[in-house]
Amino acid sequence: MTHKSVWDRGRARRVAAGALVALSAATLSACGDDGGNGTPQLTWYINNAAQEPLATACNEQAEGAYNITASLLPNNAAGQREQILRRLAAEDKTVDIVSIDPPYMPELANAGFLREFTEEEREEFSEGVLRGPLEQAIYEDTMFSAPFYGNTQLLWYKKSVAEEAGLDMENPVTWDQIIEAAEQTGTTVAVQGRRNESLMVWVNALVESAGGKILDEDSEGAEAEDVEAAISSEAGAEAARIMNAIAASEVSPPALSTAGEEESRAAFQAENGGFMVNWPYVWSAFDAAVEGGALPEDFKDDVAWTRYPQVVEGEESATPLGGIGLSVGAYSANPDAAVEAVRCLRSPESQKEYMMTAGDPGASEEIYDDPEIQEQFPMFAEIREGLTDAAPRPISPYYGDVTGAIQEGYHPPRSLSPERTPDATASLIEGVLSNDQLL
């Protein structure tokens, strides 16, 4: 692959224009320091403070082979991408290990900013990993991120609402069925309609569930101007129809167009909440709300879950996919020590500990056979199934522009048109990538 091709393009230069200004000379001069004691000093850029205890545990196990210091990234995926991109553009040697939101990995890999895992390392870090997390760790048939944890959304519902609507939740249900059930019962369908990455997750899941793609499958390694949008299709139209059907009806929670995961949870917790698509973290969040007095003690008794809704009746849904991979910076002064640290940070023991404390599902299948995991996450089978059948968002070095175009084209959900939205969004994607249009 031509690693530098993306970075030489104008859109990439815009992102990194302030890289050297953002990083002080003092920061760069400290790169690769061994702390004066011969122990490789590694910096792990983490996306969640709950990851820091894993660094402490691995340091103890390393017995001087390395020492990891955690550095917290911004709390949103776009901010994390920008900071890491700027540091790597400046060839910052302190980027030893980084927790990367998988959709942004190809951009960094294509620019030559990430160390390729060897074939032996790829085999090791692929063993026992569920299909979804593994698929999004690979770019151009090379592993650039070792799967750490995965994530998938479930359909959460109130048993009393489903029963009142006569909805059989023992069998797969469609979006149309839950919309109709919510209309019958005067309840809501909580979704993420905010113009950020959560909206892209929703659109991608709908399109993939309808048998379509946002980008043509042959576009993965293409130059920007040669990337073809595939969302102008029946699948893209179905996504627009379903999103509009929710947003323009009484089943829509208040302010759907600005709702993220937490707003969706609040809508579901309300008295008229009926259905919700969301990540598994909400289960422990319900507990916290009960303990804080915001919810009645028996709230969870009425809550159940099932697989993400189908778009086409009888065709399995393509479940949303999230998670984090662990990558090694291409300019790390201690790449071998960094790989050794990755082995510890993503071990089954570390994945279990992180899942138990942070609530984010592990990427390895064996985690879900653990009795403690099964007790804390009674929906473990649905999570495992979702991570197996999940559909990654487009794997492309131009993902930043692609998600930006989707977020513009499919927002706000209330004004979407099955006839116009897919075509307009496809044109926007291709126009932005060919530098003919701006987001």
TrEMBL record:
<protein>
    <submittedName>
        <fullName>N-Acetyl-D-glucosamine ABC transport system, sugar-binding protein</fullName>
    </submittedName>
</protein>
<dbReference type="InterPro" id="IPR006059">
    <property type="entry name" value="SBP"/>
</dbReference>
<feature type="signal peptide">
    <location>
        <begin position="1"/>
        <end position="30"/>
    </location>
</feature>
<keyword id="KW-0732">Signal</keyword>
<dbReference type="Pfam" id="PF01547">
    <property type="entry name" value="SBP_bac_1"/>
</dbReference>
<comment type="similarity">
    <text>Belongs to the bacterial solute-binding protein 1 family.</text>
</comment>
<dbReference type="InterPro" id="IPR050490">
    <property type="entry name" value="Bact_solute-bd_prot1"/>
</dbReference>
<keyword id="KW-0813">Transport</keyword>
